Amino acid sequence: MRDQLPTQRLLGAALAALCVVLGALVLTPACAEESPAAPAPAAAPAYTPKGADTCLKCHDDAALLGLFRTAHGRPTDARSPFGHGQLQCEACHGPGDAHARGKGKNRPPLIRFGHKSGTPVPTQNEQCLACHRGTNAHWQGNAHAANDLSCADCHRAHSAEDPVRKVATQPEICTGCHLAKRTDELKPSHHPLLEGKMACTACHAAHGSTAPAQLVKHTTTELCTSCHTEYRGPFVWEHAPVTEDCSLCHQPHGSTQPSLLKTRPPFLCQECHEAQGHPSVPYTPDGLPGGGGPQRGAFLAARGCVNCHSQVHGSNHPSGSKLMR
To answer: For the whole model, what pTM was predicted?
Structure first.
């Protein structure tokens, strides 16, 4: 009897295992029906077999063909979209095989550039930054990017000469948005932008900067004295506004006063310097001839305080503490 017990137990265990296996086989099809197989991933968009030759069958206007006179259309430059082994038009506009094969309004769109293109601005800019990121490290977060500006709003990639890269035509592009600065340029005292001798990028880094107002130098004074070197110093006798910030006295984009001043001396000077003691009364318009007040016209007219304090930007003279020599 004891010898039969192990045999019976083994048979019972074998039958139990067989039931489990059969149950799994029966239930497996039902489970498979409840969880259908995942759909196959969509095929990636295809590029055209002949590249630009396909595009140029339709897009052959003179304005577009100017691309071949730019760095983008240079076949001898391996970095160019038209360099050896590159994707030509599709390097910027994306895979175009479906677009080329399509018909009419149902033709799949490509990446287009410009504010009215329909392509999201981040998508446009990412196409440009794929190549130009190294020279535009500060683009993300700068004022132009924050205002949803695309590269194509300023640049003309298909033009033989990009207007925003030319000194003579760049200000017109910039002041298309910066209208107040356009007004300043028309004032009597201004930097020579309208004359085509200076561009906005001489002072501003349009693609971003760590300095205020996207300046190309760290401070306003450092920027100004990179051209106006005679005021750089250091001086034995310094004038505090000169070392602190030139824009305390000057309006850089244009002014109705001489030398880009914000207002004429002595009124400009009296914004900081009190009238007490030099002389004991302030200079006001009443002191001008016909003003009705005490006649101090010699001090108010022409250059005002600078008639005597001629070295207003600083002096190296041993006796120049008053900036008079």
So the answer is: 0.77
